[in-house]
Amino acid sequence: MKTSVVSTLAILPILATVSAFEIADIYKKTLGNSDCTAIHLTEGRILRANCVKPGYGSRADYNLDLNTCFANYLGSLNHVTNGGFSGSCAGCHMDGTKLICECLISPESGIKHNEVELDNWDLIQVNDDILTCGSDSVGLEMRGTGKAARFFTA
């Protein structure tokens, strides 16, 4: 009995330290950790969501034209400011926080299926009253025809 009481008391400081590291609401700014619901696309490019405002706790409706965030390079979506991906990608929709599109590689090569998890990048940020594209240091590596793009952080 003595040992279990001592063991319990020994672990209490560890539990207190771990709970102190929970992320404050003001820093919960991505699609996944801002408690966003009703995430969907309109016009194949306008991201819409209802999210908790970081630091406020109240909910708000947000939208972002993803043409300002992505470009289509050889059939792969890449993070490029004002990339205008929707001109060469079709059938775009959301599955949770995942953007799914069919993008043109070239007229001769056809199309390529793309699935991009927007929350993994921390690319889409919830900031007070607007959704924004995150840092330009986050993106995809551009590669030659026949090679898939992959995520990287510069």
Describe the structure.
With 154 residues, the chain is mainly β. The protein has a single domain (24-153), classed as Cyanovirin-N (HIV-inactivating Protein, Cyanovirin-n, Roll), CATH 2.30.60. It contains 2 helices and 12 strands. It has helices spanning 2-20, 118-121; strands at residues 37-42, 46-52, 59-65, 70-73, 76-79, 89-95, 98-106, 110-117, 124-127, 130-133, 138-141, 150-153. The strands form 5 sheets. It has a 3-stranded antiparallel beta sheet, with no helix packed on it. Strand 1 and strand 2 (46-52) form a beta hairpin.
Helix content: 10-25%
Average predicted local confidence, pLDDT:
77
N-to-C order of helices and strands: HEEEEEEEEHEEEE
Can you tell me the CATH class? Mainly Beta
Question: Span from first to last CA?
Answer: 55 Å
Q: Main beta sheet: strand number and arrangement?
A: 3 strands, antiparallel
Q: If you compute it from the alpha carbons, what radius of gyration comes out, rounded to the nearest whole angstrom?
A: 20 Å
User: DSSP helix count?
Assistant: 2
In what range is the share of β-strand residues? Answer: 35-45%
User: Would you report the number of β strands?
Assistant: 12
Helix/strand/pairing category: mainly beta
What is the molecular shape?
A: elongated
> Which parts are unreliable, with pLDDT below 50 for 5 consecutive residues or more?
15-26, 136-154
The number of domains is 1
CATH superfamily name? Answer: Cyanovirin-N
If classified by CATH, what would the architecture be?
A: Roll
Strand order of the largest sheet: 1-2-3
CATH fold description:
HIV-inactivating Protein, Cyanovirin-n
